[in-house]
Amino acid sequence: MACDRFLYDPVHKRYTVDRYLADVKHRYGGLEAVLIWPTYPNIGIDNRNQFDWLASMPGGRDGVREMVRDFKQRGVRVFFPIMIWDTGTRAISNPMAAALIAEMQAVGADGLNGDTMFGVTEDFQQACDSIGYPVALQPEVAIDDLNMVKWNTMSWGYYWKYDHVPGVSVYKWLEPKHQVHITNRWIIDRTDDLQYAFFNGVGYNTWENIWGIWNGITERYAAAIKRIGHIYRAFPGAWSSAEWQPHFPAQSSGVFVSRFPQQGYTMYTLVNRDSVDKTGRQLQLPYQSGLRYFDIYNGRELHAAKEGDLVYLDFPVEANGFGAVLQMKSSLVDKRLMNVLAEMRQLSAKPLKSLSDRWTPLQQSITQVKKTVRYAAAPKGMVAIPGVKNYQFKTQGVMIEGNDLPDGIGVQHPWEAHPARSQTHGMDIDPFYMDKYPVTNKQFKAFLDATHYRPADEHNYLKDWKNGTYQEGWDDKPVTWVSLEDARAYASWAGKRLPHEWEWQYAGQGTDDRAYPWGNIMDSTLLPARDTGRVMRGPAAVNAFTRGASPFGVMDMVGNVWQWTDEYTDLHTRYAVLKGGGYYRPKGSDWYFPEATALFKYGKYLLMSPSMDRSGSVGFRCVADK
Description:
- With about 625 residues, the protein is of the alpha+beta class.
- The chain has 13 helices and 30 strands.
- Helix 4 (about 95-105) packs across helix 5 (about 120-130) and helix 8 (about 220-235) runs antiparallel to helix 9 (about 335-345).
């Protein structure tokens, strides 16, 4: 995820490629390529298209280009996604294939991953050819038409059926240079994925930050990835062998072997699909003079037992584990190989089963909000919200995915042991004051005139204003294109603060658990009509729907603009809880940022930097303490 805190430091406003790579190197041995994802799940909250989201990354395209360069200087290739379903946001003038290939050339990227695509279509290859910029094309799901293997040089191995007997990758079988990356994003036990990858001599997608939900690789599987990766890197030519032979005869039941011949050596990969250790004879090979044999996985030389025209190799393969044997001409054995053996001996010193496979959700913490000065009476434009005992705070996130990891998705409120999509919690809420309406353009202009506030990162700041002011007739429209930091600056100047999620919801519901400020039945006449166009029309005036008041008289709470509330952070992700739902949602795909008009629903909006975070459908209102 582009917003991963190991990749970008919002405090010092810089990309931290070295920090990101050092972390994955330490935990599972590093990687060969990264897929940088700046779009989903935030795309669709406004009409920014996939190109706009990339350009909104810190530093714009120049900053992205420098980040890509940093990866490539460290030997790591860089991919970006094809959001083929992004057909409802801001229109582009060129065909998507031509535009994306040109974008990859502009930032120096190496590949494109086709999100939801069953094969990246040939127009992308034609676009590469037309400008002479080769890009690796990699569909997410599969390749529908095997003819596409001609230009889809890579693919994700998604939805593989894991039987006891390992299956064979049809794409690699047809074209041994085709590189599959097995992908199983929500899985915790990665044994099947890694064994099928190693058996086929293909790659693995170490996907942990899944749309801001952390499915971390546990110690056991990180160790397995580190060992497999080390073998792959030590013998890079083996895995595209034109004479690859899956299901080479094995000598132990439950152990399956693949053979990868290359000039001067042959590599054998083994996977033990049984839950018991296998020892003794594992391989039977034709005798050839002048060969030596090495248990690469365990880092030692093997002494072949010759019987007639055959040799037998004895070595262990642990339960649900891996093995690798190298057959090499004696004349090619060198110091580099001895170093590989020493490294593998160290990496494989502990059995995988002795390492922990315990998964725990990443803990989140709420960003603390200071109380304001206490007001004896409601400040101008604010409504008094009485205190309440045992308010039943019920909340439900509208995130599209994540149910496969129920203890990791959603918000970890301060009283919860782990994140959750839906929660109910009884709580006391102190009395406070809330802005009757969201902050308007006119009010925000007054703040700017008084303070001359300018954010350090101005990209997308007040994007719909011209020449330092809002458009004519927009006085009473809610201010948008303001980041969480911009909203906090305004609140501090006004002697206020942003509301907690539960304060915002209570001010809208009262104590009767209603779904909407006016009651439990949705009434489309009490909020703006939805905008589904590719050009956003702008929000409605905050006072346009006078019959939509909450029980306490708070107005314009739902259906106009999303409203900033709390910020949460874990080790890898920052996000904000958005309430109220926005008036805009593009057509064309269910993958766009979902709506949440009901008071008890919330949107989880991933944060990276103000340039990315500002949106044409996100505004705010303030509260003050009583």
